[in-house]
Write a structure and sequence with these properties.
Two copies of one chain form a homodimer. The first copy, chain A, is 80% helix and 0% strand. By secondary structure, chain A is mainly alpha-helical. Chain A binds a DNA duplex through helix 3. Chains A, B: One of its GO terms (molecular function) is DNA binding.
DNA sequence: TGATTTTTGTACCGATCGGTACAAAGTTGT
DNA sequence: ACAACTTTGTACCGATCGGTACAAAAATCA
């Protein structure tokens, strides 16, 4: 009696490491310790349902730990600062890849287009909201929010490509201080 | 008698669209119009050699159109400006994905680790060189160069995820003006 | 033209793919 | 203990994977 939520982390890691196409049931079975029988019992929809479930959980995590604080935390600078803490820990200081980003670049984007779009749209919207609340005008807030989210995604790519996780940490620090001056 | 160079563009497009794992020989055969016989005649090493060849060509293109101008163009501001033009056209104003970025995020990074690392390392180094020549101190040049390359990669991800190619164009414009003030 | 070599299409290989069937094993309620 | 139900492992399915063998077909050279 294994619950879906118990194996979602392992499942997410497989998709992150191998992408949607590369995450074979054999790999998934090995990573979760569950046979095909159990997997298809938990996820009758197969791989697609597994990935959808993982995305749902990721979205929920970001909603709780990023989006909501960004929208509601007072002063808004606190929400922004917390965002950087959460991002740093979630992406393991640059050693962990963003599954949603991976899916966005691949063909599987078509399968999960809505989830992928929503993830980034909500992130940008929440961050822009915090910026607006801190005094920026609406247009500048959205532009800066897009820039910051893109910078985070790009830093993941670059840190991974150069095998320099520290680059990711540095990028976060730079963004943090830039936003402190922008928002303060 | 089809030459390797003739089919490399189609080949690159398949890898870009489907990733390394997702680019099956059936897809490759269809995209290039060549049967397996011809493919394995041109690339005895199979998929791995095809991808390596594509990466080599990409690297050569960037060397000619980006890295060298960045290092040698005078004044350096010209090289930087040309870089943005080249980047905009190469990535089809945000509608085309960066294959090297895709590989960097996937497992296939291990297979092409050196090529992936070299691509980004040379880009950052060339851009940092141009910045240094334009008067920035060495440390700031490298930091800014990493930031810019990351921003470009992130903008690709974000533009694709949100299905808003214009976001990529806007990001380039922002970077361009920021660097004009930094380098000028 | 005929001999030689390069290029191509097709049939095939074992392995693995995602997914299904189903019975054994485990759990639960009584 | 027994029946009802849930969870799991294993065998198997057709399809497709990357790759090989090889002969027909082109092209080249004499």
């Amino acid at each position: 009696m294994t619950a879906r939520s118990e194996i979602l982390p392992a499942l997410a890691e497989v998709f992150r490491e191998h992408g949607y196409a590369g995450a074979s049931l054999a790999l998934i079975s090995q990573a979760t310790g569950l046979g095909k029988g159990s997997l298809y019992h938990l996820f009758p929809g197969g791989k697609a349902e597994m990935a959808a479930c993982v995305l749902e959980e990721i979205d929920a995590w970001f909603e709780t730990n990023l989006y909501r604080p960004l929208r509601e935390r007072d002063p808004p600078e606190r929400g922004i600062s917390d965002m950087f803490d959460s991002v740093a820990s979630y992406f393991r200081s640059g050693q962990r890849v963003c599954l949603v980003g991976v899916l966005a670049l691949g063909t599987s984007r078509d399968l999960f287009a809505e989830a992928v779009r929503g993830y980034f749209a909500r992130w940008v919207a929440a961050l822009a909201d915090a910026l607006r609340r801190s005094g920026q005008d609406a247009a500048a807030s959205t532009a800066l929010a897009e820039e910051v989210v893109a910078q985070i995604q790009g830093a993941i790519v670059l840190a991974r490509a150069l095998d320099q996780p520290a680059l990711f940490t540095r990028a976060l620090a730079t963004l943090r201080s830039r936003m402190a001056t922008a928002a303060g």
